[in-house]
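Hi all, long-time lurker, first post. I run a small reading group and we've been trying to get comfortable going from sequence to structure in the token notation. Rather than ask abstract questions, I figured I'd post a concrete chain and ask someone more experienced to write out its structure so we can walk through it together at our next meeting. Sequence below, copied exactly:
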Amino acid sequence: MEWIFIGLTIVLWGISPVFDKMALKAIDPVLAVAIRMMTAGSIMFIYAFIFKKIEVIKRLPLKSIMFFIIASSFSLLGFVFYFKALSAGFASKVVPAAATYPLFTSIIAFLLMKESFSLKKLIAIIFIVAGVALIK
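-- Answer (accepted) --
Happy to help. Here is the structure in token form:
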């Protein structure tokens, strides 16, 4: 079942940058991020309201809320820099390079959460770096 969701993620995330790039021709990247985040936030608020998730949110532990705020802040800054890169460069180069973030996720998860780091992950990292080098 998760492969269906992964497939949908790949398709939707693959389509999105094309529209982002087209939109960035007419707008400042930081404002574009603001519009994108407000749109997503509004849609998710409607979802939470319709499906009665507001009470669940209210009961979240403070520690979880703080982690969400920290993660959202990093994500927001990442979007700002991604949109700046996308507005200045080719989508076919910026998107694959930006998609190397799992490399950093693996390293940070290993350092902060003590997740395992295997030879397979190391080989994957080498392939990620090599792939980005090839698109330059």
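A couple of things your group might point at:
The mean pLDDT is 93.
Residues 2-89 form one domain.
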